[in-house]
Structures are given as C-alpha cells and as structure tokens.
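Proteins fold reproducibly. Consider a sample protein:
=====
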Amino acid sequence: VQLQAFGGGLVQAGGSLRLSCEASGRTFSNNGVGWFRQAPGKEREFVAAISWNGGSTNYADSVKGRFTISRDNAKNTVDLQMNSLKPEDTANYYCAASFRATAGRSPSLYKYWGQGTLVTVSS
C-alpha cells in the first residue's frame, strides 16, 4: 500500500490545520494508522494513532486535547485535525499503516510509511 500525506503549510500560533493521509494500491481498512512527526535535529516522535475501525485512538501527551485523529474507511483516508497549534508543533508529519489493527505508539509497529508533509507554526 502506498500512503500520501497532504495538508501541511504555514500557520500562525493558535491556528489550525487538517492533515490527510490517503492510501492507494490497496485498502488499509484493516490496519491501525498512525501519525508521527520529526522536527529538524530531533528524533521522530509519535503523535496519534487510530485502530482499524476507529474504535480506539491514542495520542501523545503533547497533543492531547488539541489534535484529533479520525478515519473514513470508505474513502481510504485518515485525517489529523490540529487545533491550537504551537511553534513546537513545527515538523514534517508522516502517516503510517501498522502491521496490526490496533492504535500503537511505536514506529516499529508500522510497515508502510508515506512521505512527509511540512507543518510550520510561526509565533
């Protein structure tokens, strides 16, 4: 399965962006899907994940209450709504499909990775 992330851009602190991850090649409706991010000079970190049917979600503490992950299996998409953005949210954001159906936090659980989409939050 090929994944592609969309929706990055430049936004002021306090603003919102909605990222979308689209799958092609085959469906990822049986897979957990996660979002990760990597800022310059930093390691990749977990942001959010959602189980195969959307019944379970998982968030990093740094984004809890500000970001919401959702999925539409009919459209083969997973979205990340990001509100109240902060400069420290600036990073390349990547979506990934897991080996499993659950919403895992570890990158090692994820088999398919999309290219990143850059989010820049200005202060």
Remarks:
- DSSP finds no helices and eleven strands in the chain.
